[in-house]
Amino acid sequence: MSRTTSGISRRALLIGTATAAAALTVPTTAFAAARTPKVLVIGLDGTLLGRVKDADAPRLKALMAAGLTAPSSIYANPMAPTMSGPGWSTLITGVWPDKHNVKDNNFTGHKFAQYPDFLTRIETAKPALTTYAVSSWAPITDTVFSSKVDTRVSTPSAEYDTGTTSRAVAQLKSGNPDAVFVQLDNVDHAGHSYGAASQQYLDAIHGVDGQVGQLVDALKSRATYGNEDWLILVTADHGHTDAGGHGGSTWPERQTFMIAVGGTAAAGSTRHDVKMPDIAATALAHLGVAIDPAWSLDGRPIQQPTPDAFDSLRAQLTGPVDETGIGAGVVGFTHTPPSGWSVDNSAMGTGGVTEWRGWAFTTDEFWTRAERDQQRECNVRARNVFAVADGDEWSDKTVSGTYDSTLVSPDFPVTGGRPATLTYTTFYRQESPQKGEVLVSYDGGTPVSVKTYTADVPSRTETVALTVPTGVTRAKVRFRYTGGNNWFWTIDGVAITQS
Ligand SMILES: [Zn+2]
Fold it and tell me: Is pTM, for the whole model, over 0.85?
């Protein structure tokens, strides 16, 4: 019973104050917590969330109304192309392509032994649970999901999505699966044949919408449905261009999304901090599989949101000033830091592109649209709003002086005399004489350098050990970027922890 109790309190915490209505729809917390958790992941190949909204898609729209909708974006080359192999591998393993190493649709050199699919993780942690995967695109069930999954079915191509749907429906109606994965392919097919801007693409979304409806109806028709706590996740492996096709770095090709219904997902809610690997992590969390840090998952369960100070800026982001390639309607930058933070531009040169003069707070969409194919698309581990110092984009208009800007954190409370850990997510692309430096000061003392960047660092979470002097109570972090027409540095999710 103690596990049940902690489940209730975690649920109550996550629901929070904004969704009191959603909390009221739970009959009683005791009843809800006693239900058997189950998960259905529906993957819609090449499906754009924006076109779902344009389409006659009542079942998908009903899921969005009943749950969480999270538009999201993915990498581009050189991390991986926006193709199905890397996309499905990322969704299903919960790590980005620089870990699972799928860079194409041949899966050569994949690291699924080290980063297995989420159904295999379920089988390892809870072998008694029943796992089932069916796909119209065979590599998913032949290669990405391992033989530890109870049932893997690659639908014969003659049956295509009709056969995939009927198999999944039969399993949901008559079987007793705990975790189900279904991939439907036809929207991608329409995208390739006619383009995402076409009526045929909308028609394909209408068609798959009916199949999603069949899956949801099958699930709800279960005799045991009232005693089950189903989490439904709907997602896509990549987007499509208006003219049709994907693999490149344009914003439409880099689109994905998560729709989540059930569990703690609040009805009609929207989030901007959800990333592609969160599908696997969220499914694992719903089934009570503890995520071991040793797995190095990039995904985070949506049930455990981890917003940072920069994310609070989303509502005050504005549109482009000097940048011409981003698109007038795209909102995504500010120079006003969040409460407690500051930016020291006292040594900063003048002129240049307004958006990038000194540290800016921005989004993946706004920043990557400023200029494509310079690796900004690989900043995959930043979430929602992040900080960027970009000497390259700043220098696209006449400048005088050099780029010298320092992002300054609030005081983090610390206990003197005990070690601490500074963590942040970063991505750094080097060209001499550019330099990034992290400095820490205690109780207003002289900042001391704790980390220097003078070589490329791929997207990753840094952990920097700090020696906290005896007697101090406050630590302040500075991120100083100096350079000119070089590259960039991103910072997100800054925290200091002490055990
Ligand atoms: Zn395709």
Answer: yes
pLDDT of residue 34: 80
- The pLDDT assigned to 33 comes to 56
Secondary structure of residue 311 in the 3-state scheme? helix
Write out the H or E segment, with its range, that includes residue 459. strand 457-467
How far apart are the C-alpha atoms of 179 and 38, rounded to whole Å? 6
**Torsions phi, psi for 174 (to 5 deg):** -110, -20
80 alpha carbon – ligand 1 mean position (Å): 15
Distance 54 CA to ligand 1 centre (A): 20
pLDDT tens-place string over residues 294-329:
999 999 999 999 999 999 999 999 999 999 999 989
- Nearest 5°: phi and psi at 22? -65, -40
Can you read off the two tokens belonging to residue 53? 């909204």
Helix pair 278-286, 84-93: axis angle to 10 deg: 30
- 51 Cα to the center of ligand 1, angstroms: 16
Determine the Cα–Cα distance for residues 92 and 142; give it in Å rounded to an integer. Answer: 13
Q: Distance between CA 150 and CA 256 in Å, rounded? A: 28
Distance of CA 448 to the CA centre of its chain: 33
Does residue 62 contact residue 260 with C-beta atoms inside 8 Å?
Answer: no
202-226, pLDDT tens digit by residue? 999 999 999 999 999 999 999 999 9
pLDDT digit string (tens) for 324-377?
999 989 999 999 999 999 999 999 999 999 999 999 999 999 999 999 999 999
Q: How many Å lie between the centroid of ligand 1 and the Cα of residue 282?
A: 25
The pLDDT tens digits for 103-140 are: 999 999 999 999 999 999 999 999 999 999 999 999 99
* E runs forming strands in 383-447: 386-390, 399-400, 403-408, 412-413, 419-429, 435-442
* Separation of alpha carbons 140 and 15, rounded Å: 34
Q: How far is the CA of 114 from the centre of ligand 1 (A)?
A: 27
Distant-in-sequence, close-in-space partners of 16: CB < 8 Å, separation ≥ 6: none
- Cα of 366 from ligand 1 centre, angstroms: 25
CA of 314 to the centre of ligand 1 (A): 32
Distance CA 484, CA 383 (A): 26
